[in-house]
Amino acid sequence: MAKTIIVGNALTLRGSGLGEQIDGHDTVVRINAYRTRGHEVDVGSRCHVWVLGLWLNMVANIEETCGGNIWAWAGGGPVIHRKGWREFLDKVEPEQWQVQHHNWDTLGLATYDELHACGIADNGQLWPSTGLVAVLLVHKLLDDIRPDIVGFGPRDKQVDGHYYDPREGVFGRMHNWEAERHFLNRWEQQGLLRRLDE
Q1: One digit per residue, pLDDT tens: the chain, 198 residues?
Q2: Contact 99, 49 (CB under 8 A)
Q3: Residue spans per domain, the chain
Q4: What is the reported pTM?
Q5: Which of 66, 114, 121, 144 has minimal Cβ neighbours within 10 Å of its Cβ?
Q6: Which residues sit opposite 126 in a β-bridge?
Q7: What is the CATH number of domain 4-195?
């Protein structure tokens, strides 16, 4: 088993029964407005790293989490000035959370160029999803060259909706989901990650 698992929020997790397997990892990485309460059987309950995209409103439930590291991701501009970020930080208990700010400088120009070539990033018109950024940050910042991923949808088609909100059309339209699916498939074929929910 990989030391690290990155848990996406895709509808494919609903009814998966993977909660115990997810929580069995040393490091559990969760994304944006994840929910565990009431979904533990499918998604587990542990969280060590919480990756947030800062163009979102801060809607994730801090009280559900156990504390750990927050990796705050912003594609450009000063993170600290993002709408809602100050209010969010006021709710974070400093003794529980270590906040790190990340942007393209963390990921590096080569990564941006690769994502641009794949149609995932396009000079402010398209952004990588926070889930994909979480995968990239785990490779960059954690000592796990082949993390597990779950809740990123199937290899062969795009699935809309979240496990906690199955309505269609809730995924962001600033992302090229098809390109991201192919990117993750390629990384899986290269042995850089492993999907658990297929």
Answers
A1: 579 999 999 999 999 999 999 999 999 999 888 889 899 999 999 988 888 876 555 544 555 656 677 777 765 444 444 555 666 666 666 656 677 777 777 777 678 888 888 888 886 678 888 899 899 989 888 877 799 999 998 888 877 788 888 675 555 677 888 999 999 999 999 999 999 986
A2: no
A3: 4-195
A4: 0.86
A5: 66
A6: none
A7: 3.90.1480.20
